[in-house]
Amino acid sequence: MWTLNFRGEYAGMLEVEKLHKSFGERVAVEELSLRIENELFVFLGPNGAGKTTSIKMMTGLLHPDRGRVLIDGIDLAADPLGAKRLFGLVQESPVLYEKLTAREFVHFVARLYRVPENDAARRMQQLFDIFEINDRADELIEEFSHGMKQKVALAGALVHEPRVLFLDEPTVGLDPKAARNLKDLLRGLVDHGATVFMSTHILEVAERMCDRAGIIHEGRLIALGTMEELRQKTATDKASLEEIFLQLTGSGNGDDVSRFLEEK
Amino acid sequence: MLHLLLQTRLRALVNTMRRGGKKSRRRWLGYAGLILLPLLVLVNIYAMMAVMMHNPGLGIPAVQLLLRNILLGVFIMLLFSGLALVLHIFFLSKDLPLLLSSPIPLTTILQFKLLETTVANSTLFFGIALPVLISAGIATGAPLLFWLVLLPGSLLFLAIPTGLGAFLAMGLVSVMPARKAKNVAAVFLSLISIAVWLGFQVLRPERIPISAAALPGQHILDAGARLSVWLPSDWLVNSLMFIQAQRYAAAAGNALLLVTAGLLLYACTSALLQRALHHDIFSGLEMTTHRRRRSRPAPLPALRRDGSLFGHIIRRDFRIIRRDTQQLMQILLFTLMMILLPFLNRGVEQSGRLAVYMPFLFLFIFSMLMGSTLATRMVPMERSAFGLFKLAPVRLRWVWLAKMTLSFLFVLCSGIFAAGIITAIHPAAAAAFVRILAVLAVLDLLATLCGGLFGAYFANFTWDHPKRMISAGSSFFLSLVLFGFLGLVGGLIALSFFLFNSPDPGILTSAVLALIAVALGTSAAEKKLDKIEWTY
Predict the structure, then answer these.
(1) Contact status, residue B173 vs residue B280, Cβ threshold 8 Å
(2) Do B102 and A23 touch (CB under 8 A)?
């Protein structure tokens, strides 16, 4: 079991106000508003619903047409450096320097965030223990599998103890043990005051882990709340997140499948 | 923060050199080549300049003229390589999301990326232009000031094409995706490289006429002076050569132009790129970098019930190649080489019965290279999707043959086109032209066969660059086999000349042998493709 000495004296907060983004005539994200504080929030939606675009706007990779993002009260547009110091990001395809070793990469990220050398070394060691990359920490990243690269990216995103952590499909490519460690780690981070914003397609994982979930469909946030609140919204008592998701996004009536089978 | 980014880039570079096994050793050989190239340029150009300086009618004006031409060629190449590098480093590099989501000021990211681009774009300058300038300094016995101005002047000169490249890049990405724009820039760079190489073929010491009257000398320099005001390459050459001539005011004027242009461009480029950063241009989303044409969705094509698998694969592969800019451009480049290279032989008179075929020698060589290159890629081009054929109830013989047919048709059509143009320059009788086309078809068939077999046997389905679709060692081996086949066909034709006083029996025998080889090769390819253990 991992032990990570995160500070714990803070409560990371993410506020999103009327975030809007269009590409030409296509509206990717429409007036998205959220307030997430010290919780594990899962962001769900079908492919192309606007999840990744939302995360990119929340992390400064994309500029919204309008609306704003606050990280712990700091406006991302007004003080980008101040806000960026407070969050970490792990993308679906890990962004790494292939010609660096895992240790060099995580050390580089620590220096980007101005983490003191001693703290950086200690946290790096803890993170390498958690993700079991100690044995290969001095190998070039280009030699790693996708799962190993994902672990290095996670270690890089966590080395500066972010108050808000954004994860875009973080479990893709991870082996069961690493996925389990990640889940424990995320839960632990939240217990220590951090906020985790995670997009995923694995609804079973989401259901078990999340404090609240938001469902985005065609750029609009169509549902937001705890599992109980979502069940109430769909007027079902014991529906799983998968059933709620399919009901709300209108993709689960099975008509197309039935028609296809009948034609056969 | 800038130093941290530079330090990390340097560390990655050192890691690349120190680690990586065979790949790294090959890279070291590349570095050795990078040292040899400037030395060769230095020796060759110095020899030429020494000849000029010993000829009283030529002297310094001719050296200056030569410098201007070479520097202009390098400048144009730097402009297009700068464009390709800006597109790669600013728009396509994978570290952008990491840098942009980290607490690094945008100006720092911008400076880092600009420096990275300038350094990456300097190889050509240090490989060719600098040795040429050093040769000029040595040949003309330049004073100390020449050497002192040389390096800072060179650095300022380097900043100009990079800055202009950034301007061009911004324009290009507003009309097409960055990746496509990069391919277009790479093609322009290749074309210009060929043009410059052809230029260098003319600039050989042995081609300089002994008679001074044959060279234009001073009056050409005077005529070019009006154009010089606009060319950064001339500013650099003039500032150095005026120092040599002890005309310090003129040297300072040209140096001032260089400094002003360099700084102005840096400021404008920074402002432009910074504006672009605020508009998501570098966000890694290519879709934001170009306006999409709105078009009505095309109706789904009706399924062709009568189409055979063979024809279907040919049509599908044609569509893939047509949409792949890199493959198409490579075909275009090979065709251009086939057409352009015979120009170099124009001055060299050939005699004998084979003289009429000599201008087509480059056509044969490049046609074979093109045929084999294209054919090797037909199987690995599928990447992991090739597994579909393994799963489908089809005979892999027909899949492979369809791919080879398309590759053969591509290369034969390009070859016939090139042969037509060459014939217009080097007229050949109708019978000779038919024979040339027959030899071309035989060679293309053999090249396609070799390429196809190598593509099946040494396919690398996880390639990251089209050049790495088959393993590196096998590429070299393939070249040897190709030249072996070229020698075999050439030998058969020569033997036929010797025995029957006609090339026709030799061509016919080669054609029969080629067809037998295709039959055997197809079976071998099918066996290999059947055996591939699919792990994707």
Answers:
(1) no
(2) no
Q: Which of B255, B289, B323 is the last residue in one of the domains?
A: B289
Q: Nearest residue on chain B to A107, judged by CA atoms? A: B8
Task: Decide if A59 touches B, using CB distance below 8 A.
Answer: yes
Q: How far is Cα of residue A209 from the mean position of the Cα atoms in its chain?
A: 13
How many other β-carbons are positioned within 10 Å of the β-carbon of residue A239?
16
Let me know if residue B419 belongs to a domain. Answer: yes
Tell whether the model's pLDDT for residue B190 goes beyond 90. no
Whether residues B155 and B264 share a domain: the answer is yes
| B429-445 pLDDT per residue, tens | 888 889 999 999 999 99
- Residues B111 and B194 reside in one and the same domain: yes
Among B98, B103, B283, select the one facing A85 at the smallest CB separation.
Answer: B103
What are φ and ψ of residue B203, in 5° steps? -85, 65
Q: What's the CA gap between B422 and A55, in Å, rounded? A: 58
Mutate to test the interface with B, among A26, A56, A143 (most CBs of B within 10 A): A56
Q: Domain spans of chain A?
A: 93-161
C-alpha count within 13 angstroms, C-beta hemisphere, residue B101: 29
Show which of B241, B273, B289 is a domain's final residue. B289
Nearest to B101 among A25, A59, A111 (CB): A59
Overall domain count for chain B:
2
| Higher-confidence position of B388 and B3 | B3
The residues, any chain, with a CB within 8 Å of residue B412's CB and separated by 6 or more, are: B440, B441, B444
- Looking at the structure, tell me whether residues B500 and B437 fall in a common domain: yes
Q: pLDDT higher for B10 or B444?
A: B444
H helix intervals, B279-386: 309-323, 325-344, 361-378
Residue B223 sits in the same domain as residue B344: no
How confident is the model over B456-478, as pLDDT tens digits? 888 877 776 667 777 767 777 88
Question: Are B254 and B331 in the same domain?
Answer: no
Whether residues B264 and B319 fall in one domain: no
- Same-domain check for residues B510 and B419: yes
Print burial letters for B251-261: b (CB count within 10 Å at least 16), e (below 16): beebbebbeeb
Complex ipTM, two decimals?
Answer: 0.73
Q: What would the pLDDT profile of A176-215 be if each residue is shown by its tens digit?
A: 877 787 888 888 888 888 899 999 877 877 787 888 989 8
Q: What is the mean pLDDT of residues B246-253?
A: 86
- Is the CB of B4 less than 8 angstroms away from the CB of A112? yes
Asked if B104 reaches chain A (Cβ–Cβ under 8 Å), the answer is yes
CA distance B418 to B410: 12
Task: Please indicate whether, in this complex, the C-beta atoms of A84 and B94 are within 8 angstroms of each other.
Answer: no
Question: In chain A, what residues touch B8 (CB-CB under 8 Å)?
Answer: 97, 100, 104, 108
| pLDDT of B357 higher than 90 | no
Q: How far is CA A44 from the centre of its chain?
A: 11
Containing structural domain, residue B437: 313-531
Residue B68 lies in a domain: yes
B176 and B210 in a single domain? The answer is yes
